[in-house]
Amino acid sequence: MSIVEIIIGVIGAVLAAAVGGFGIGHLRGTSKAESKADQQRTEDNAAATKAAAERRVEATKGASNVQQTVSHMPDDDVDRELRGNWTRKG
Known about the structure:
Elements: H1 3-72, H2 75-86
Keywords: Membrane, Transmembrane, Transmembrane helix
């Protein structure tokens, strides 16, 4: 073996190690990014579910309040209220 072959072999080994290092680093970085994205999606879904539940509770409370109000109103007042608020204009 000549010295030139040894030098080329050493350079090749160093390049292979460098490329391998970059490849392993890329795989680890991708894995971390994917797990972080999954965690963010989970947190976003949880926040959306909580917001929807809060809106549903508010809507239920509002409906209950309307039902309570209507049940205590005389029939004529209910009719007048419905005609005033729920008829098409024009």
